[in-house]
Design brief:
Strand content: 15-25%
Structural class: alpha/beta
Order of helices and strands: EHEHHHEEEEHEHEHEEHHEEEH
Number of helices: 10
Number of strands: 13
Mean pLDDT: 93
Shape: globular
Distance between the termini: 53 Å
Largest sheet: 5 strands, mixed
CATH architecture of the largest domain: 3-Layer(aba) Sandwich
Low-confidence stretches: none
CATH topology of the largest domain: D-Maltodextrin-Binding Protein, domain 2
Length: 308
């Protein structure tokens, strides 16, 4: 019997779902390897301040990465959108799992009779989100709505909605699907209306680069199409020098043998949005992402980012 493979995960219901999926798949590939999960609390789990206050970069990942580096765990399972684009020395992304729906979702109160659409929200509706990216794009579509900060796990956010603190909330479709809450999705928001976060809907498996046991096991979870798309998106974000707390969005897909990447940078109030798209060979997804970032920087994205 080989030594156990230890997965590190945050303790939220969604994080544990992701870790358990990774555990079950790894166990199926090699039944002789014991795979177990260790729960690790991160800064983002213990602080309730808005991400814009505590700083979004690494707030849900640092403690997991520390555990990787000191050998307490072999693998860290993350929502890819939470993982900074520059990893600590000695760590690497061993796999990016097949992506769930990358779109954002509009969630209305239970029993609401309103139509499920951003454009059908009543005048002055109170919408909950903690994302600067969602805020900017929502305000660009609907200047009249009031956006209020929303923190907590998925269940907490939906409870606050149903209690009447908000008229609607915007969440990731992927999280709702994974938690069995598909019936709460009033509308999946088209990427043409609201471009997703970099890596949204994808799960990252992070390993220590010199841990061959972990690297070999993690590689079996990799999904090529998802990896190519997410590498392009992450290169775009890295090229802009931003993090997940900035109003930056990107979404890539493979289409007819080409990798197509859409990206945007916005002012938080939605008063200015710069967006563009590029297509290129899937052989170099990072070059595509960096090229799109350079294009937007040349058109004024740097001044928007400097003002944040």
């Amino acid at each position: 019997m080989s030594r156990p493979l230890v997965i590190g995960s945050r303790g939220s219901k969604l994080a544990l779902w992701q870790a358990e999926q990774a555990r079950d798949r790894l166990q199926s590939f090699n039944p002789q390897v014991e795979v177990r999960i260790e729960i690790i609390k991160t800064t983002g789990d213990v602080k309730s301040d808005p991400l814009s206050v505590i700083g979004g970069k690494g707030v849900f990942t640092k403690e997991l990465e520390d555990a990787l580096l000191d050998g307490r765990i072999d693998i860290a399972v993350h929502s890819l959108k939470d993982l900074p684009t520059v990893l600590p020395e000695g760590l690497s992304i061993g796999a990016i799992c097949e992506r769930e729906d990358a779109r954002d979702a509009l969630v209305l109160r239970a029993g609401s009779s309103e139509d499920g659409s951003l454009m059908d929200l009543p005048q002055g509706a109170i919408v909950g989100t903690s994302s600067q990216r969602r805020l900017a794009q929502l305000k660009a579509l609907r200047r009249d709505v009031e956006v209020k900060d929303l923190r907590g796990n998925v269940d907490t956010r939906i409870r606050k909605l149903d209690e009447g603190q908000y008229d609607a909330v915007i969440l990731a479709s992927a999280g709702l699907v994974r938690l069995g809450l598909m019936e709460r999705i009033s509308a999946r928001i088209a990427v043409s209306e609201m471009l997703p976060a970099v890596g949204q809907g994808a799960i990252a498996i992070e390993t220590r680069s010199d841990n061959e046991f972990a690297v070999q096991n993690a590689s079996r979870l990799d999904h090529r199409e998802t990896r190519l798309a997410c590498l392009a998106e992450r290169a775009f974000l890295r090229g802009l020098g931003g993090g997940c707390q900035f109003p930056i969005a990107a979404h890539a897909i493979l289409d007819n043998g080409l990798l197509k990447l859409d990206g945007l940078v916005a002012k938080p109030d939605g008063s200015e949005i710069l967006s563009d798209s590029l297509s290129g060979s899937p052989d170099d997804p990072e070059d595509l992402g960096l090229s799109l970032a350079a294009e937007l920087l040349s058109r004024g994205a740097s001044s928007i980012l400097q003002s944040l």
